[in-house]
Amino acid sequence: MRHVQKKGKPKGKIQLEYIDIRSVLDEIGIDYRESGKNVGTGWIGVCCPFCGNDHGYHLGICLKSPVISCLKCGKIGNILTYFIEELGSFQKAITILGDSVPRELRSFEAEERERAITVELPENAKKEISVYHESYLEGRGYDHKELTEKFNLHFVGPTGGEWRNRIIVPVIKRYKLITFTSVSISDDSNLRYKHLSEEKSVIPIKDYLLGLEFTDGNSCILVEGLFDMMRIGDGAVCGFGVKITSEQKRLLSKFQTVVIAFDGDSAGRTSSENLANDLAPFCDCKIVDLPDGKDPDNLSKGDIKYIRRLIGK
Ligand SMILES: [Zn+2]
Question: Which pLDDT tens digits describe the chain residue by residue (313 residues)?
Fold first, then answer.
């Protein structure tokens, strides 16, 4: 197996020469220092919003390239990351940085569309696994106990209405159930994966990344499917298919490193390439080139190890 390193193209990078950092900071009323304790030459020091309670101007904003670096908490990233954190909004950050942010990134939807509705798992969904669900998971080579516990899986039997004979996978964000998806364990179902509808979800599944809570926040491995994610383990996130929505891209753009491990087919390869170009201004991307017909769920242990090592795991 091999992978391709995709460093951001200069064209797509945030163009620092168009930003007057000092006037941007003045405009939003942020106190900064140009010299003194914790402030290096060629840097501007601000209090670090990532630290929580920094009063010592530990976060450096570089004047030569669009990067930030905190001497206290160790946070590094690009300047947009800083403004998103400081202003609490992607849209505000993009607005303040203006034309220096590449067009494709400006079109990302800004605010999370969290709605005041409550998601409930299907009525017949149980925590107890049946022999059928168990043999489905074991048949795919999984330890059902481990998966059930980790993902809080629920199971619906043959009399469960629209969710019958399915494994229910809750999607949790900050302890809140935002939506769920499911996989059919019977061969006669014409829809193997079925998600809770957009209307009934707090956040639709295509606006989120399953597995996000098991990443370290610095790097992730993006895969197409649920089982690809489960196979790779902590650090893998699933976008459900190769079509990554702008909201999913926004979530990915927060990582320093994104490893894209789509299936070994033409759709997977084309999408990987396009996605890496979209993310290049924000993250380092690595594209894993899977052999034809392979997906992460059917890779050897050695290949999984290879992919995990790309995020330093
Ligand atoms: Zn910090």
Answer: 788 887 654 444 566 666 788 989 998 999 999 999 989 899 999 999 999 889 999 999 998 888 899 999 988 888 888 998 888 877 788 888 877 776 656 555 444 455 668 899 999 999 999 999 999 999 999 999 999 999 999 999 998 799 999 999 999 887 789 999 999 999 877 789 999 999 899 889 998 999 999 999 899 999 999 999 999 999 999 999 999 988 898 889 889 899 999 999 999 999 999 999 888 878 899 999 999 999 999 999 999 999 999 999 8
In the reported structure, the alpha carbon of residue 111 is separated from the centroid of ligand 1 by a whole-number distance in angstroms of: 24
User: Taking the C-alpha atoms of 234, 240, 241 and 245 in order, what is their torsion angle to the nearest 10 degrees?
Assistant: -110
Sheet with 32-33, side-by-side order of all strands: 32-33, 43-46, 59-62, 67-70, 76-78
Burial (CB count <10 Å: 0-12, 13-18, 19+), residue 298: middle
CA 57 to centroid of ligand 1, rounded, Å: 9
CATH class of 212-309: alpha beta
281 Cα: distance to centroid of ligand 1 (angstroms): 22
CA of 50 to the centre of ligand 1 (A): 5
Phi/psi of residue 278, nearest 5 degrees: -65, -35
Ligand 1 center to residue 74 CA distance, Å? 6
303 close to 20: Cβ distance less than 8 angstroms: no
Question: CATH 3.90.580.10: does it fit domain 11-106?
Answer: yes
C-alpha 72 – ligand 1 centre gap (Å): 5
Measured in Å, residue 51 CA sits from the centre of ligand 1 at 4
Top CATH class of 131-202 equals alpha beta
Residues near 5 by Cβ (< 8 Å), separated by ≥ 6? Answer: 284, 286
Q: Where are the domains of the chain?
A: 11-106, 131-202, 212-309
Same fold, 11-106 and 212-309: no
For ligand 1, the distance from its centroid to the CA atom of residue 246, given in whole angstroms, is 28
Q: How far is the CA of 194 from the centre of ligand 1 (A)?
A: 41
